[in-house]
């Protein structure tokens, strides 16, 4: 399959993900709760750290406190990965249930994520360690090293593209989950990157619209304008997080299972998935 065919499939999958979300709008609840939970937990953690250190956050930049600084960074990474993956797995499980024409609810998704908590925590520890290593390198090398770390970060993001559904449905160690994700990405890189790019363009357009509307409203009432912008950013982030999870779940389901994802039955896309299975 040529590059342009992969691009067309990526856009098609993006459109189909939008259709799935329109058909089941309750899926947006998961990223919204994730965003709120992450804000509350990290805010509480930062408040507690500040309280017990007399609010001297500047000491984190002191070379003599590098252990405290990197321990703080690691814990933030760990909390973030755990919360985000927990709710992403809940969402993806509900997406699969939706594909199977089964009941979808918040409680069902949360219960399933709880059942996968061991795999979620093991991956969070693994990913946080990788993130911390990259952070340490970034803080202690020159400009060339920072550029290298930037590329490594991009490679890490691409390599872990399919990790969440693998954690959700396969009993793999973090290392094996990473290898499986890389293997899937090698087969579906064109569709995956194109769909991701498509979501990015749409999200950017949504942000620009909210920014303009908020600016106009802010001319009359600055507080209302700020509130509208924050609400718009939360809503936009939640919608596109849900779309991305639907897309990843659909691709993983079609490639790795025998479940008939009817919403993704377009001939070109279906043939792509069948060829990957073979």
Give the oligomeric state.
Answer: single chain
**Low-confidence runs:** 274-278
Major sheet description: none
Order of helices and strands: HHHHHHHHHH
Mean pLDDT: 80
Q: Which structural class should the secondary elements be placed in?
A: mainly alpha
The domain tally reads 1
Basic shape: globular
The count of helical stretches stands at: 10
Give the end-to-end Cα distance, rounded to a whole number of Å: 15 Å
**Percent range of helical residues:** over 70%
Query: What Rg do the Cα atoms give?
Result: 20 Å
General description of the model:
The chain is mostly helical. The protein has one domain (3-277). 82% of the residues lie in helices and 0% in strands. The chain contains 10 helices and no strands. It has helices spanning 3-23, 29-52, 66-99, 106-115, 117-139, 143-159, 163-169, 174-220, 222-256, 267-277. Helix 3 crosses helix 4 and helix 3 (66-99) packs across helix 7 (163-169). The longest helix has 47 residues, at 174-220. This is Membrane domain of glycerophosphoryl diester phosphodiesterase.
């Amino acid at each position: 399959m040529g590059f342009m065919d992969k691009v067309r499939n990526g856009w098609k999958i993006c459109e189909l993900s939008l259709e799935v979300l329109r058909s089941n709008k309750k899926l947006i609840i998961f990223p919204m709760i994730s965003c709120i939970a992450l804000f509350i937990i990290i805010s509480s953690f930062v408040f507690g750290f500040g309280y017990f250190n007399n609010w001297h956050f500047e000491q984190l930049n002191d070379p003599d406190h590098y252990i405290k600084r990197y321990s703080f960074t690691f814990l933030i990474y760990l909390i973030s990965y755990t919360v985000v993956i927990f709710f992403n797995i809940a969402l993806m499980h509900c997406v699969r249930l939706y594909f199977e024409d089964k009941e979808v609810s918040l409680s069902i998704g949360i219960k399933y994520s709880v059942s996968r908590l061991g795999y979620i925590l093991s991956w969070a520890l693994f990913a946080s360690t990788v993130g911390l290593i990259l952070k340490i390198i970034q803080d202690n090398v020159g400009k060339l090293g920072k550029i290298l770390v930037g590329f490594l970060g991009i490679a890490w993001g691409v390599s872990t593209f399919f990790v969440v559904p693998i954690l959700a449905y396969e009993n793999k160690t973090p290392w094996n989950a990473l290898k499986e994700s890389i293997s899937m990405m090698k087969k579906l890189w064109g569709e995956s990157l194109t769909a991701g790019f498509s979501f990015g363009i749409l999200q950017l357009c949504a942000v620009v619209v909210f920014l303009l509307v908020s600016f106009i409203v802010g001319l009359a009432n600055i507080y209302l304008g700020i509130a509208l912008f924050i609400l718009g950013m939360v809503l936009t982030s939640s919608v596109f997080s849900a779309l991305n999870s639907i897309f990843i779940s659909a691709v993983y389901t079609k490639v790795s299972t025998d479940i008939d994802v009817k919403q993704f039955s377009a001939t070109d896309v279906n043939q792509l998935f069948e060829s990957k299975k073979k």
